[in-house]
Amino acid sequence: MPDSAALPASDARLAGHPAGLRRTFAIISHPDAGKTTLTEKLLLFGGAIHVAGAVKARGEARRARSDWMKIEQQRGISVTTSVMHFEYGGAVFNLLDTPGHEDFSEDTYRTLTAVDSAVMVIDAAKGIEARTRKLFEICRLRDVPIITFINKMDRESKDPIELLDEVASTLALDVSPMTWPTGSGQNFKGTYDLANNRMLVFDNTDKTRIGEVIENYQIADSNFAEEVELVRAGYPAFDLESYRAGHLSPVFFGSAYNNFGVKELLDAIAAWAPPPRPQPAEPRPIEPTEPKVSGFVFKVQANMDPNHRDRIAFLRLCSGKFRRGMKLTQMGTSKVLSVNSPILFFAREREIVEEAWPGDIIGIPNHGVLRVGDTLTEGETLKIVGIPNFAPEILRRVRLEDPMKSKQLRRALEDLAEEGVTQVFRRVIGGDHIVGVVGELQLDVLKTRVEAEYNVHIDLAPAPFETARWI
Ligand code: GDP
Fold first, then answer.
1. Can you spell out the DSSP letters for 317-379?
2. Same structural domain, 188 and 224
3. Short-list 398, 390, 354, CA closest to 372
4. Which end of the chain has fewer CB atoms surrounding its CB within 10 Å, N or C?
5. CATH number at residue 292
6. How far is the centre of ligand 1, averaged over its atoms, from the C-alpha of 35 (Å)?
7. Ligand 1 atom closest to Cα of 38?
């Protein structure tokens, strides 16, 4: 772990400031690599949940309340994004969940604009998979620093050297192993902490021994000793600057399911992951230590209560000390909002918060005023940049079964466009609504939600256009 003298200048600038304690990150992975399991275990350390399994259980309870989530249940995928706030070891974490399904990449992309770092989870038996690579590329666009967690070591895995080389070559990233596994599957004995010469013991037959640490471990097995020497010589040592610049990824081996290697990972995030960076904006970047509040909306979500049409906008704070009841100005429209019920999201519950700091994510309930990409400030004209907007790849004409419901349809489409579920176009002269989405699954979500929440039955027909452009 780095001592404070070794920390970069950006951390020194935040020394003593609550923003300096924030670690706002996401987990990127291919479906099934273990993101949900790892999230649970991280939250256990944060004391945010006391029983592993609560994340999913709670998610299911919430989903059950909301009709449109039936789609998710049927397909067994997660299409929502949530935020989890927890504290551990003196640091304050904001973990942003990214939806797993490929078609929901828009949402995921935007979520990744709101984090300062990421954890990349890789299934040890599978290595780098398609979606991991895609998400990694998005992180790279902003040089987001990445810590790698190679999961499921309790199962037969690929050779660890092969895994590291695969990460390095497919992602063009330097890798620096922090721990080294001995065996995998039935033969997995634990990991050796390369920097501190400790052995973390994993015992399949005696689960109580999982996580036991032997200090000053003398490696008895000559093959393993040789391998450790090879690994030490063959890979670059961890370098904080290089990690922070997004060039080098420290790598941990473990098993999320067995809560093995998770503490080491969390300690590394606390010690190394960057606190909020200056936020690119026009006409000037925003420093987290500025006294005035600014932030941007990266997601808008329908309130789960179908009887209410209000929305929750997720605001990533970039500067200032946010206080409940503050007035913030929406850039572009100059509308002033009094934020009287800002929400902080924990694993188990949500709470009205009195204050929040850069790096934190607060939910702002509103009636469709706030949109994805909005900048809010205390008055200064600033536009936060870098939140992507996507050109739709699939266009459909919306046909209404009952023509008397055109008003409801319009309302529904406007609401869902605000959430970023679809984009809506109208032909220049009259005609049907045209909706645009990036992935097929979004069409299902659109149809189901329009029916369930607005009681309007629609048919989505191929549109007579190939592409739509804003004019
Ligand atoms: P996600 O799709 O990335 O969120 O993956 P999940 O966390 O839902 O995990 C996918 C499956 O892998 C589940 O059945 C988990 O129980 C299992 N799993 C996760 N971590 C481990 C691990 O460390 N070892 C083993 N053997 N299974 C794991």
1. EEES-EETT-EEEETTT--EEE--S-EEE-SS-EEE-SEE-TT-EEEEEESS---TT-EEESS
2. yes
3. 390
4. C
5. 3.40.50.300
6. 7
7. 7
Using CA positions, which residue lies closest to atom 28 of ligand 1? 257
Domain enclosing residue 308, as ranges: 281-384
In a domain, 470, yes or no: no
Distance (Å) from CA 315 to ligand 1 centroid: 30
**In a domain? residue 469:** no
* 204 and 293 inside one domain: no
Test site for ligand 1: of 120, 257, 259, most ligand atoms within 8 A of the Cβ: 257
Q: Tell me if 430 is assigned to some domain.
A: yes
Contact 296, 373 (CB under 8 A): yes
Specify the amino acid at residue 261. G
398-421: pLDDT as tens digits: 998 888 888 899 888 888 887 777
265 and 324 in a single domain? The answer is no
Domain end (from 352, 384, 416) = 384
Q: Say yes or no: 186 and 211 in one domain.
A: yes
Q: How far apart are CA 15 and CA 12, in angstroms?
A: 5
CA of 149 to the centre of ligand 1 (A): 13
**Shortest-distance Cα residue to atom 14 of ligand 1:** 32
Tell me, in angstroms, the distance from the centre of ligand 1 to residue 116's CA. Answer: 25
Please indicate, yes or no, whether residues 297 and 246 belong to a single structural domain of this protein: no
The best mutation among 29, 32, 122 to test binding of ligand 1, ranked by most ligand atoms within 8 Å of the C-beta, falls on: 32
Ligand 1 atom showing the smallest separation from residue 256 Cα: 23
Domain count, the chain: 3
Q: Nearest-CA neighbor of 337 among 378, 292, 291?
A: 378
CB 72 within 8 A of CB 84: no
Residue 444: pLDDT band by 50, 70, 90 thresholds?
Answer: confident
CB 83 within 8 A of CB 96: yes
Residue nearest to atom 6 of ligand 1 (CA): 34
Nearest residue (by CA) to ligand 1, atom 2, is 32
Alpha helices in 211-308 (DSSP H): 222-234, 240-244, 262-272
35 located within any domain = yes
- What is the 31 CA–ligand 1 centroid distance (Å)? 9
Predicted confidence (pLDDT) at residue 388 exceeds the cutoff of 80:
no
Contact residues of ligand 1, CB 6 A cut-off: 29, 31-37, 100, 151-152, 154-155, 255-258
- Tell me which residue has its CA closest to atom 10 in ligand 1: 32
pLDDT the model gives residue 207:
64
Question: Do 293 and 214 share a structural domain?
Answer: no
Chosen domain end from 247, 272, 297: 272
Which of 62-71, 204-213, 263-272 has the weakest average pLDDT? 62-71
